[in-house]
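--- STAGE predict ---
source: upstream dedup step, 1 unique chain passed
mode: sequence only
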Amino acid sequence: MTAAIMATSCGKDTPPPVITTEDPEFNITFAAFENGSAKAFAGNTEVTKAKAGDIITVKATADDTFHFAGWSSSPVTGFDDAAAETTDFLMPDKDITITALFSKDTYMLSFAVNPEEAGTVTVTVDGTAIASGDQVEVGASVTIEATKAAGYAFVGWSGIDLDDASATEAVFEMPAEAVSITAAFDKSEYALNFAADPVVGGTVTVTVDGAAIESGDQVEVGASVTIMAEAVGDYIFTEWSGIDLADASVAETTFEMPDGEVSITASFLLVEWVQIGATKWAKYNVEAPGEFATTPEDIGMYYQFGYSIGWDGTVSTPANGTYYNWMAAPLGWGDTSAPINDPYGQGPCPDGYTVPTSAQANALIADCDQSNTSLRGVSGKQFTVKGGSESIFFPFAGWNPQYTPGSPSGVGSTSYYWLNEIGTLAGPWTGSSQGPPPFGAVMSVNNSSNTNVTQQQRAFAVTVRCVKVE
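--- STAGE serialize ---
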């Protein structure tokens, strides 16, 4: 507003001076800008000053990735809309400082797990955990971490570009857009290994949800696994190992595939004996000292009474290079004064077995029916429990007299099996080559008559069938 003031004068003919005054202008100042800028206008003209009562328009411009957040002023004035980027106010009658507020742009960050039960996702922004759907500032450091549930394996991330989408933990910078991340999981798979011990003892069959698999195949965690053990020959299944089972002694059972690799073993035991009456008879003749032959029809090796050195029947002398002088032969399988003799009375039998007695042989004869037969081409005699199914085979192994070294006699028709006793016969042979009595007790097994307990010269090399020590 302009005002004119008339002054009076005492002098003659001098007009009074006129004094003109303008309304004052006040400064318009913007506080230091952060992340944007602002200007003031009077009409279309940018101004930095204005008179009290003038209508002033302010306009804000945000930098990239920022947005306008509001106006404030000192002294406080009334903005038409303090939240609008462009708004008006009436200039006060004093200087004014205006502040344009800017904030970082934010976008929604959501995250999920697929399938839902497979695991969890944890998201932190600059170290602070957030919930799915929260707003996150552009450029913020976002850490995502996937944790699998039991039975699942993490597959990868989707919804955001990552250096390694298969890593369970990753970091990225929040982009200038909404982000929806999914952590994908799949059922875990692990190797399922299985074997028989010993390999010759039996077979192992494994099915997963009804389908047969091979050892080493991958199996999903939680799948139903059925394992079956089947013994072969003289072996029996004893137990499973490598996996927790309700009953590890059952040959066929089922379990749920655990969260990890599994190696299962089916253990088989070679049943070396047959229970006949009160005695457990070995199924096999003695091979090398302390070892059984591998099959019931194997003849094994030949032994002189009381000695634990075997002869295989293919050379003219025993394995030690000579027959022992039978006149010095021990009087029993436990006579420790004899050379090379086993001091424990078991003779050449494996540990846990011994040479049978006459009483045990007579019980076998009494308890069993006998029949001449052949097993895989080898002739022998089958003993079968009367009224039962238990049976045992003795091959006709022959024998070799000490005084006629060479190939065994009577193979295929006759055999003698040492017993753990001294006989009483004193003849009929005489002379040093035949030696003095007593003879050794034997079980005579042949194809012309029933088996009986008799005696034979201790110098003879004959076969040995053991019984289990109880």
